[in-house]
Amino acid sequence: MALVSPSKLAHVVYRTRRFDEMINWYTTVFDARVQSRDEVLAFLTYDDEHHRFAFANLSLLNPVDPESAPDHEGTVGVDHVAYTHDSLDTLFDNYAQLKELDVMPYWCIHHGLTISMYYADPDGNQLEFQVECFTTLDEANDFMTSADFAANPVGVEYDPDEWLQERAAGTPLNSKLKREIHTPMSPLRGALS
Questions:
Q1: How confident is the model over 6-14, as a mean pLDDT?
Q2: Chain-wide mean pLDDT for the chain?
Q3: Distance CA 5, CA 193 (A)
Q4: Domain assignment present for 69
Q5: Do 83 and 126 meet the contact criterion of CB atoms below 8 Å apart?
């Protein structure tokens, strides 16, 4: 019998010493609302789910001098959480809206499987906003076993502002779904291959 996989992302819990700043960032970026909050815990949602994010205030749960407490950025823990958009247009509309709020991605890459934008929240937690490039799982799996993927499994970086300019000039973003260029590999993640 096959295992049953989850049908959706339910929520993510973050431990933070920047409790208020984290809640403000998530309410801004996701247009989320606070469902419940006290000095130690806060629960936020952006849809019908009772909560999509929870925050534990480490300043109260594990009091230490905040100036000497390490953030543990880049150590054991969640690398990133991915959220899929329905289309490139909605991904880029989100990019434009966040840019207006001075929230910028630190990495934009066409993985071949997805077109992705990576963001970091105030604690350094990484979030990937992505769009699937293939319409079927078979196509995606075929790409992962192809010579093109083997030659560049990381992807090719892109400039989202250039893509927005092309869209404004009439080029549909969907024309970008197929990764035509396989080099240069992203220098940021080139060491992963």
A1: 71
A2: 80
A3: 28
A4: no
A5: no
- Give the DSSP H/E element, type plus range, for residue 150: helix 147-151
138 class by beta-carbon count within 10 Å (0-12 exposed, 13-18 middle, 19+ buried) = exposed
- Chain position carrying tokens 């929230």: 103
Q: What is the pLDDT of residues 41-87, one digit of tens each?
A: 888 999 888 788 888 888 876 655 545 545 543 332 356 888 888 88
Q: Tell me how crowded residue 154 is: count the other CB atoms within 10 A of its CB.
A: 18
The range of the structural domain enclosing residue 110 comes to 80-192
CA dist., res. 171 & res. 63, Å (int): 54
Q: What is the pTM of this model?
A: 0.72
Number of domains in the chain: 2
38 and 112 co-located in one domain: no
Summarize pLDDT for 153-164 with one digit per residue, the tens: 788 899 999 999
List Cβ neighbours of 171 (8 Å cut-off, separation of 6 or more): none
**Domain containing 88 — which CATH number?**
3.30.720.110
Sheet arrangement for strand 12-16: 12-16, 53-57, 41-45, 33-37
**Ordered DSSP codes for 31-62:** --EEEEE-SSEEEEESSSSS-SEEEEEHHHHS
